[in-house]
Amino acid sequence: MKVLGYAAQSSTSPLGLFNFERRAARSDDVVIEILYCGVCHTDLHLARNDLGFSTYPLVPGHEIVGRVLSTGADVKKFATGDIVGVGCMVDSCQHCAFCATGLEQNCLEGAVFTYNGVDRINNQTTYGGYSEKIVVSEKFILKIPSGLDLAGVAPLLCAGITTWSPLHHWNVGKGSRVAVIGLGGLGHMALKLAKALGADVTLFTRSPGKEQDARRLGADQVVISSDAQQMLAVSGQFDLIIDTVPYVHDVNPYTPTLRVGGTLVLVGYLGELKPAVNSAVLVLGGKSIAGSFIGGIAETQAMLDFCGEHGITSDIEIISIEDINDAYERVQKSDVKYRFVVDLASLKS
Ligand code: NAP
Ligand code: ZN
Ligand code: ZN
Fold it and tell me: Which ligand 1 atom is nearest residue 246's CA?
């Protein structure tokens, strides 16, 4: 089917209108009219080829909320008119050891990502949510709990699950002491989710102006990471630190703030950490540096259901698709409170 979207044509070109073809629905597919799509920092990384594996044209967007337009003959879980979500993945092998345990993101044959991926059947490039419609197998579609603002739900599909998954993996609950580095899209969801799980929550930020918002979003404490005195005052405190910083940075100021046995989990930057990590703090304190990558489909549904029960959505600024390039500039400057969401109705006008 013919679909209109917004694409980057190269790593240096701004995003602009792009007409393309999506596959006809297969028997297990659902055709979704996209209502809202969040703007993740990963969209910037991939539009600009920061990671070196982008293919063009590239239609970003993996925080998708939409309405079911039609369903294939074998679709059982969804019906026309349902409000549904699509996150970072649209397929995986479904039979490897990781798929079998709900870790589709770690599929041994490679998960198929919502955009800049390759379809397992027709080998065509996948195109994301900055578009009118998407066609996805029902296995990778999420149910959206009722009663939540739909635009605010969109960022849960990536920022929500990416921060929920480590909170869950490291058993965060009442009595846990959690810190979050960076108050952006992921960071603000981490504050909300950790707070709702009952943790005592701290934000590390470079930006003194974000303190008041951080407290409203769930932080019990805010530490300005460039202030050595403030950093010293939180030595040995945290069970878990979620590091959302998107670019190369020094983790050595943070590891001393972990308690003995604590973990700093990287979810942002992909690449060599510089300066190098000082192992002494890790060895002598039995501390870990770990990584975490989005989350599986069942885990994403559990996160959405939790958000439904607790009334949690993202704090958003709604934009029209024609403002996407300006929005990217503002994300780059950490000037967004705290996620841009594209209203795809703007693509029709
Ligand atoms: P974002 O909205 O831009 O937020 C990042 C925050 O990090 C900023 O608000 C800022 O917070 C801080 N920051 C930015 N540049 C920094 C720098 N150079 N040094 C130190 N701090 C800096 O980005 P996002 O959408 O939350 O995404 C964060 C990262 O996670 C991106 O790299 C994205 O690609 C990645 N990601 C990973 C996964 C995964 O599965 N692991 C999933 C989604 C996204 P302050 O102003 O408070 O300091
Ligand atoms: Zn994302
Ligand atoms: Zn697999």
Answer: 32
Ligand index nearest the alpha carbon of residue 101: 3
The tens digit of pLDDT for each residue in 63-102 reads 999 999 999 999 999 999 999 999 999 999 999 999 999 9
Q: pLDDT digits over 188-209, tens only?
A: 999 999 999 999 999 999 999 9
Q: Is the model's pLDDT at 339 over the cut of 90?
A: yes
Is 90 exceeded by the pLDDT of residue 284?
A: yes
Q: Is the CB of 87 under 6 A from ligand 1?
A: no
Long-range CB contacts (within 8 A, 24+) of 215-222: 217/183, 217/188, 217/191, 217/192, 217/315, 217/338, 218/191, 218/192, 218/194, 219/180, 219/191, 219/195
Task: Please measure the distance between the N-terminal and C-terminal CA atoms of the chain and give it in whole angstroms.
Answer: 20
How far is ligand 3, taken at its centre, from the CA of residue 145, in Å? 27
Question: How far does residue 259's CA lie from ligand 1's centre (Å)?
Answer: 24
CB of 334 closer than 6 angstroms to any ligand 1 atom: yes
DSSP per residue, 79-97: -TT-EEEE-SEEE--SSSH
Tell me the pLDDT of the chain averaged across its residues: 98
Answer whether 331 contacts ligand 1 (Cβ < 6 A). yes
In the reported structure, the alpha carbon of residue 96 is separated from the centroid of ligand 3 by a whole-number distance in angstroms of 4
Q: Can you point out the beta strands (E) in the chain?
A: 2-7, 16-21, 29-39, 64-71, 83-86, 89-91, 112-113, 133-137, 142-143, 177-181, 200-205, 221-224, 238-243, 258-266, 288-291, 316-319, 339-343
Q: What is the whole-number distance in angstroms between the Cα of residue 22 and the centre of ligand 3? A: 24
Q: Is 42 close to ligand 1, i.e. is its CB under 6 Å away? A: yes
Specify the ligand 1 atom closest to the Cα of 295. 40
User: Of 63, 64, 74, 66, whose CA–CA distance to 29 is shortest?
Assistant: 74
Q: Alpha-carbon distance 321 to 16, whole Å? A: 9
pTM of the model: 0.98
- Count of all residues that appear for the chain in the document: 349
What pLDDT shows up at residue 349?
Answer: 80
Sign of the CA dihedral running 293, 294, 299, 302: positive
